[in-house]
Design goal:
This protein folds into two domains: 246 residues, Rossmann fold (3-Layer(aba) Sandwich); 219 residues, no CATH class. It is built from 23 helices and 16 strands. Helix 13 crosses helix 14, helix 21 crosses helix 23 and helix 22 crosses helix 23. A five-stranded parallel β-sheet has the order 4-7-10-1-11. It has a three-stranded antiparallel β-sheet with strand order 14-16-15. A two-stranded antiparallel sheet has the order 2-3.
């Protein structure tokens, strides 16, 4: 609930409402679908973002969604986990009017000019123009239900309440004995069901008439509920075979099926991760700074996982993977800075390895992947992500500077730097490798005299060489010659 108080200038009685703009067309008795369509038509020419915070769908999903709303259709968002389906549904309230008048005391947001409940009809008949009006904020007109196998018709539609009947002296067939479910309480608003295939088939059947005719039966008593509601759903394709399915007659009644997708460009994924991840910290920890190359490697881990045959593509790799990984990278940098008394917490490639629990728990593996283990695959994904991040900055040309670095390791030299090593000490250690720091500066991986960023840049170069198997990398974060493997 928004708990927002309606402005006092709004009409407080039916008589005042009738004399206001809400009592005249087009506001009077306008359906919620027409309301959304009208507000959407007014916002489209302005070319402002229709769904703030949603990235990467501007040319794919959002035009289809806008078309469905302009067509006044119910719709379903079909996509893998972590594709912003629920966020899109919750943002639909932005297309509703800020305030909506209702008969005060009504459980189903009765329209004062077209009530559907017996309570509202009797109150309007008894009090006439003096009937008090309640105002509902747009945020309170969105009702969401997660579908689970134990959901009942009573949960969605309602049930007869014997206690209410006894207290009021009503027979059970009286409408006043009805306890309304979530769907009637969403009247004149938006009702969303997440993970629709998880809803039992017999419950899906109960939605048929509500979507088309508005008729339901409770305990054998026919009840007419001409609900005014926009229905929207989400589903994961994996659910069609793993847990349940959407029955065909219900699919036929859904106006549009819109398939979502993961970010198709690394830059878009980084924008989403930066928006959602908790990286701006407070408290006693030093200020955190994550170099762009570290952010890119974090994002590329998800892209690499989505293309890896050992990862179950039917389950997908959620955008929550880079989000939680980046948060753990910041925390790892904070911990190191606090231990060594550094004034700034700067993220490194080593911190991504510290965030392995945020990666392994979000990978659903195929049989081959299960044999190798999630941690082994996650480490390989990090190296491949580092390689592609580095190659984007290096270009296609062969670089003799890399040969010099590899030659140093091939001569029998090795380098071992712990992930919790202070930045100044780590830079000195990396400086032993001929040409490494110079390459980092020349490729703009890090500016000179910025020890934290220089460490991240040096780690990126060595991780890329390890991914190409030009040098070896040991489990305790050490690098050596690939010839000795």
């Amino acid at each position: 609930m928004s708990y927002r108080k309606a402005p006092s200038v709004l009409p407080q009685t039916l008589g005042a409402l009738r004399s206001s703009r809400w009592g005249e067309p087009p506001l009077r008795r306008r359906s919620v679908r027409d309301e959304i369509r009208s507000n959407l038509l007014h916002r489209l020419p302005a070319q402002d973002p229709l769904f703030p915070g949603i990235h990467g769908y501007e040319d794919t999903i959002l035009p289809q969604l806008v078309n469905a709303l302009l067509s006044r259709q119910d719709f379903i968002l079909l996509g893998l986990r972590g594709q912003a389906k629920s966020r899109i549904l919750r943002s639909l309230t932005g297309f509703l009017d800020e305030w909506l008048p209702s008969v005060a005391g009504s459980e189903v947001n009765d329209d004062p000019f077209a009530p559907i409940s017996k309570f509202a009809r009797e109150r309007l008949e008894a009090e006439g123009d003096a009937t008090p009006i309640a105002w509902i904020h747009r945020e309170d007109r969105y009702v969401e239900k997660l579908a689970t196998p134990d959901v009942t018709i009573a949960d969605l539609i309602g049930d007869l309440d014997p206690i209410r009947a006894a207290r009021g002296g009503h027979v059970l067939s009286d409408e006043l004995t009805m306890h309304f479910g979530l769907l009637p309480r969403a009247n004149r608003g938006i009702f969303a069901i997440n993970e629709l295939p998880d809803l039992a088939g017999k419950i899906q059947v109960g939605l048929f008439n509500i979507m088309q005719e508005g008729d339901v039966q409770l305990k054998g008593y026919p009840v007419r509920l001409p609900l005014d509601v926009l229905l929207c759903f989400t589903a994961n394709p994996e659910d069609y075979t793993a847990r349940g399915k959407i029955i065909t007659p219900l699919k036929d009644r859904i106006g549009a099926e819109i398939s979502t997708h993961y970010p198709r460009e690394v830059a878009l994924g980084m924008a989403i991760t930066e928006q959602e991840a908790w990286t701006t910290r407070d408290g006693a920890a030093p200020p955190a700074r994550i170099p762009p190359l570290v952010r890119e490697v974090v994002e590329r881990v998800a892209f690499e996982a989505r293309g890896d045959q050992r990862v179950d593509r039917r389950s997908g790799v959620s955008q929550r993977l880079p989000i939680s990984t980046l948060e753990n990278v910041v925390s790892s940098a904070e911990r190191r800075a606090l231990v060594h008394g550094e004034p700034e917490a700067v993220g490194r490639i080593a911190d991504i390895y510290s965030a392995l629990p945020s990666i392994t728990g979000k990978l659903e593996l195929e049989y081959e992947g299960e044999l190798q283990g999630a941690e082994t695959i996650a480490k390989e994904l990090i190296r491949r992500a580092a390689l592609h991040t580095f190659l984007d900055r290096l270009g296609d040309e062969e670089d003799e500077r890399l040969d010099r670095i590899v030659a140093w390791f091939d001569q029998g030299s090795a380098l071992k730097i712990g992930g919790d090593e202070p930045a100044a000490n780590a830079v000195k250690a990396f400086g032993v490798v001929p040409g490494l720091l110079q390459l980092v500066h020349e490729l703009d991986l890090a500016p000179a005299q910025d020890a934290g960023a220089e460490v991240a840049g040096c780690e990126l170069v060595l991780e890329a060489l390890a991914a190409q198997k030009r040098i070896s990398r040991t489990e305790d974060f050490g690098w050596g010659s690939a010839r000795r493997r």
